[in-house]
Design goal:
The protein has 308 residues and is α+β, with helices and mostly antiparallel strands. The protein is 20% helix and 37% strand. α1 runs antiparallel to α3. GO terms for molecular function: tRNA (adenine(58)-N1)-methyltransferase activity.
Length: 308
């Protein structure tokens, strides 16, 4: 996904090579991650696609199947990876992720601690935000889930930016080796208030903290625990409303003029006052809210470590 060259400069490969991860875009709600492999094929509703035809092409290319169908070959950005990764747990999506990164003030070179790796959706974006010289240390209590996340980071080229550990942060806290070194801490835990004292210990002076919780009762208990160590405590709920923009047909009414309504095909209608109106259909671009809008995802609680 993201490659660091010897000079530690973050970059994307411009063309597809054998073994590269590719996001195959069929339509806006149908994408899949595929590793390009010489001799392999992809078969879907649009036909059979040979991987050998992909290799050497730039990301963003449109490729055709033997029967004329087509797909787009996209670079696996964190935003697209979030849409295609395996859901081992409930994940954070782009609206919450962008809000977290901005409010935690994460920039290149930061050291970030995360507990609750889950499917690695947020971790992937955190890695890009801290690159090329920063690092994300993420922990999950579930060994198999942590192992799957580690494999994903290797697959997406982020293993030099992310370290995955198996640890019960609620019960044991973060490892002592990180005391006073973290720029930011993120928690996605059932009982985040249990880990807040450890999070405060890990942060540098003026460090930032965020906790994601699906229930407001969790937020209340977390805020109580935060007051001892943190200031500027705020909770947000990010609601995203998607609009569909498409070309459609619209009926237009106009009065009769000199017995003609121009060149548009139309129907004549008699009004209640005896006059005639003409109706014609015109093409126009229309926008309307999506019928499948995502509502509540969770609550994001932010805080800043008190300066001593």
């Amino acid at each position: 996904m993201l490659a660091c060259d010897p000079a530690k400069r973050l970059s994307f490969n411009q063309t597809i090579s054998n073994g590269d991860l590719v996001i195959v875009y069929e339509k806006h709600d149908s994408m899949k991650a595929v590793t390009a492999s010489e001799g392999s094929i992809l078969q879907n509703r649009y036909g059979v696609f040979k991987h050998s035809d992909w290799i050497g092409k730039p990301f963003g290319s449109k490729v055709f199947s033997s029967k004329g169908g087509f797909v787009y070959l996209l670079a696996p950005t964190p935003e697209l990876w979030t849409l295609v990764l395996s859901h081992r747990t409930q994940i954070l999506y782009i609206a919450d992720i962008s809000f977290v990164i901005m409010h935690l003030e994460i920039v290149p070179g930061c050291l970030v601690l995360e507990s609750g790796t889950g499917s690695g959706s947020l971790t992937t974006s955190l890695a890009r935000a801290v690159a090329p010289k920063g690092h994300v240390y993420t922990f999950d209590f579930h060994e198999q889930r942590a192992g799957s996340a580690r494999d994903d980071f290797e697959r997406t080229g982020l293993s030099s930016l992310v370290s995955v550990g198996v640890r019960d942060i609620q019960g044991e806290g973060f490892p002592d080796e990180f005391t006073g070194t973290a720029d930011s801490v993120f928690l996605d835990l059932p009982q985040p208030w249990l880990a807040i004292p450890s999070a405060a210990k890990m942060l540098k002076q003026d460090g930032t903290f965020c906790s994601f919780s699906p229930c407001v009762e969790q937020v209340q208990r977390s805020c109580e625990a935060l007051r001892t160590y943190f200031t500027d405590i705020r909770t947000f709920e990010v609601l995203l409303r998607t609009y569909e923009v498409r070309e459609g047909k619209m009926e237009s009414l106009h009065e009769e003029s000199n017995g003609s309504n121009g060149s548009l095909p139309s129907k004549r209608r008699q009004c209640s006052d005896g006059n005639y109106m003409f109706s014609s259909t015109i093409s126009t671009v229309m926008a309307k809210p999506s019928g499948e809008a995502r509502g509540h995802t969770g609550y994001l609680t932010f805080a800043r470590l008190k300066c001593l």
